[in-house]
Design goal:
The complex is a heterodimer of chains A (252) and B (308). Chain A has two domains: 209 residues, Immunoglobulin-like (Sandwich), CATH 2.60.40; 35 residues. In chain A, α6 packs across α7. In chain A, a hairpin with a 2-residue loop joins β5 and β6. Chain A has a six-stranded mixed β-sheet with strand order 2-12-11-4-7-8. The longest helix of chain A has 27 residues. With 252 residues, chain A is an alpha+beta fold. Chain B has one domain. Helices cover 71% and strands 6% of the residues of chain B. In chain B, α1 packs parallel to α10. A two-stranded antiparallel sheet of chain B has the order 1-2. A two-stranded antiparallel ribbon of chain B has the order 3-4. With 308 residues, chain B is mainly α. The chains are: A alpha+beta (252), B mainly alpha (308). Chains A and B meet through β5, β6, α5, α6 and α7 of A and β1, α3, α9, α10 and β5 of B.
């Protein structure tokens, strides 16, 4: 219902004059709160294409939606058999890799986006992973392993054809965020392409934050670690003693 | 019911954690081991980051051991004097162990060392206990009138200086062996992220010659303080103690420990030891298997410390 109202409002905006084709978009959630019973989330991304003139050319318009979590350095290690057991041997320090990355498109990515445009706007996952100066000839193997492991966890997603696009005007898609989200600002980008070339781009940040008890515990642990440690012990010992007392009472 | 853990930053089923805590708690109460050697690998398995699992496990062991110690204190099966001597060694050992742990983390080999430690120590101790208990059970089954077992000779231990009387254990021995056992267990406890009961219990029985009934309570007593110390160290240096995870594990754990302590009283010492040795060998076998067989995924994503 919310989406319908949003789409109607967007449709009204289409009358305004502007450049050839522009994207007008909205998100179902402005922010994501991580609460105690947080078990992942889904954001709906919807919008419309605003046109001043009839669509140019024969090639269809495509929509690419990316959602990117905060980037962090990552160490990827490779196991090798040494003295009969499997141990971590080689390691590669990847300077920056997003903690979450989802790409959803209307058409296969190779068709919706040219390589040069990908390099320019850093749209695909490969552009978001930065591993320079590792000095390894086999660095691509480590990058591929990182992508493979994180794809299995649902942290990296490529959803080709997941964006619904009606009448070359209205589009919508849903992106599934896993439960083990890293806190930070998630960058959402909605990109219009025609013939593999970016026509327009819309960006919006979604803050992902812990709230309530989660926030309180996290802050205490990081700002007053000694007090937090003592509190953890006191709670543990109190619970241990209480359970013991309850058990004794029940038996006696 | 899914619950989001604020420090581990993962969402897990709360009942799964309660159940794990309960099962490990039963073992803790029965054998006087903290259960960390089982719980820590189980936490890795359900997707808790290793640094958080090790630190939180220390916190949980404090709680499950506390209720166990209360049960033993009531039955007067804790040698407080021996416990204190072991504890002094244990704290010193834990401080050294944390430094070793930090150095190995820096070179990325901490996982391997932890697993090798598990395999080596669990293998030796499990094997020794298994065969010793088996012999004891066979002896007990022999018809009455057989030759009574000669008291084990511990000449070199009696020759050491600084002798002290441990009334509860009925021992008059030097404080050096218990101190050394304490240091050794403290180092291993810090490196392996466990209480160290599975090493201390056999050491007390076979090395110090303490009666089995006293061993369990005394080891729990020492474990509380060593793991409490480790919890504070982890909380202040790595910020990896997850309070919510610890509370869930211990709610299951304390109840399990009470049940375990009740079962432990009913079983014979030899039976208790043979059960513990089988379990130790099973965990050892599983870890050795993982090291020897080619893993499905050759690559792992490392955790660069846990701080954000």
């Amino acid at each position: 219902m919310v989406r319908l109202i949003g789409l109607c409002a967007l449709a009204l905006l289409l009358a305004a004059p502007a450049q050839a084709e522009r994207v007008v978009a909205g998100l179902s959630q402005e922010a994501i709160a991580i609460t105690t019973n947080f078990a992942g989330s889904e954001i709906l991304i919807y919008g419309a294409v605003q046109r001043a003139a009839p669509p140019p050319g024969a090639e269809p318009l495509e929509v690419i939606v990316t959602v990117q979590g905060p980037s962090q350095p990552v160490t990827v290690r490779r196991k090798e058999r040494r003295f009969g057991i499997w141990v971590n041997a080689d390691a590669s320090q990847i300077d920056e890799a997003p903690s979450f990355y989802a790409v959803s498109t209307t058409a296969p990515l190779a068709q919706a986006l040219s390589q040069t445009e990908d390099l320019r706007h850093r749209i695909t996952l490969n552009q978001a992973i930065r591993a320079v100066g590792t000095g390894r000839a086999d660095q691509p193997l480590f990058n591929a392993a990182l992508i493979r492991i994180r794809s299995d966890d649902g942290a990296y997603q490529l959803n080709e054809g997941a964006v619904r696009f009606r009448e070359q005007t209205l589009f919508d898609t849903a992106v599934r965020l896993p439960a083990n989200l890293t806190e930070g600002d998630y960058l959402t980008r909605i990109i219009l392409t025609r013939g593999g070339v970016v026509v327009d781009l819309h960006e919006q940040l979604i803050p992902v934050r812990k709230v309530g008890l989660e926030r309180w515990i996290y802050n205490l642990a990081h700002e007053r670690p000694l007090i937090y440690g003592i509190l953890s012990l006191v709670i543990a010992i109190a619970a241990g003693w209480m359970a013991s007392a309850v058990f004794r009472y029940m038996r006696g | 019911m899914q619950i989001y853990l604020p420090i581990a930053e993962v969402s897990v089923n709360a009942f799964l954690l309660l159940g794990l805590g309960g099962i490990v708690g039963v073992l803790s109460g029965m054998f006087g081991v903290g259960g960390g050697f089982l719980m820590t690998p189980l936490l890795f398995f359900i997707g808790i980051p290793p640094a958080v699992a090790v630190a939180t496990e220390a916190n949980q062991i404090v709680a499950s051991s506390f209720s166990g110690v209360l049960a033993h204190l009531k039955r007067k099966t804790v040698d407080l004097r021996m416990g204190t001597v072991l504890l002094i060694g244990g704290l010193a050992g834990a401080a050294v162990g944390v430094q070793i742990f930090a150095a190995l983390t820096a070179i990325g080999q901490v996982d391997l060392l932890v697993k090798l430690c598990y395999v080596v120590f669990l293998g030796i101790i499990g094997g020794l206990m298994f065969f010793e208990s088996l012999r004891a059970i066979r002896r007990a089954r022999r018809p009455a009138g057989s030759v009574p077992l000669p008291r084990r000779h511990r000449g070199w231990i009696h020759a050491l200086p600084f002798k002290m009387r441990f009334r509860t254990s009925g021992l008059y021995i030097s404080v050096i062996p218990p101190l050394v056992v304490g240091v050794f267990v403290g180092v291993l406890a810090a490196i392996m992220g466990v209480g160290g009961g599975f090493i201390m219990v056999p050491a007390m029985i076979y090395l110090l010659g303490m009666p089995t009934k006293v061993v369990v309570g005394t080891s729990l007593f020492q474990i509380i303080f060593v793991t409490g110390f480790a919890t504070l160290m982890h909380a202040t240096t790595n910020y990896t103690v997850d309070m919510v995870l610890a509370v869930l594990l211990l709610v299951g754990g304390v109840i399990g420990a009470q049940i375990g302590a009740a079962i432990g009283v009913k079983l014979k010492a030899e039976q208790l030891r043979i059960l513990l040795s089988i379990m130790v060998l099973l965990v050892c076998g599983k870890l050795a298997f993982d090291l020897l067989v080619m893993p499905d995924e050759l690559y792992v994503i490392g955790f660069d410390g846990a701080g954000h």
